[in-house]
Amino acid sequence: MAYGSYGQGESKCRSCGARIIFIKSTKGHFIPCNPTVTRYRKEDGGKEKIVLDTGEVVSCRTDIAPEEMDGVGYVSHFATCPNAKMHRKGKSRR
Q1: What pLDDT is stored for residue 4 in this prediction?
Q2: Which residues have a Cβ under 8 Å from the Cβ of 56 and sit 6 or more positions away?
Q3: How far apart, in Å, do the first and last CA atoms of the chain sit?
């Protein structure tokens, strides 16, 4: 389920202004994601990650043909935001 700032829907990234949605992870945390749906194929140890509607984060490949896909999901906005480092928490803040 995708959430915006005020429930379901879209929001904006506070640092770059891009449109984002939030997906609730399986651990209950909200993950900011790009709103575009992306095809993926599961790949153990894959360098890319995709966030599913269920909140599961899957290692995968996204540069695939439609007939090769396992499903669709969303790319974390942390992977594409030019200001992502501003939002990362250090070990001392955990």
Answers
A1: 47
A2: 26
A3: 26
The pTM (predicted TM-score) of the whole model is: 0.80
Contact 56, 70 (CB under 8 A): no
3-state secondary structure labels for all residues of the chain: CEEECCECCCEECCCCCCEEEEEECCCCCEEEECCCCEEEEECCCCCEEEECCCCCEEEEECCCCHHHCCEEEECEHHHCCCCHHHHCCCHHHC
Nearest Cα to 13, choosing from 5, 2, 1, 24? 5
Evaluate whether 61 touches 24 at the Cβ level (below 8 Å). Answer: no
For the stretch 68-93, pLDDT in tens is 999 999 999 999 999 887 766 665 44
Q: What is the largest CA-CA distance in the chain?
A: 45
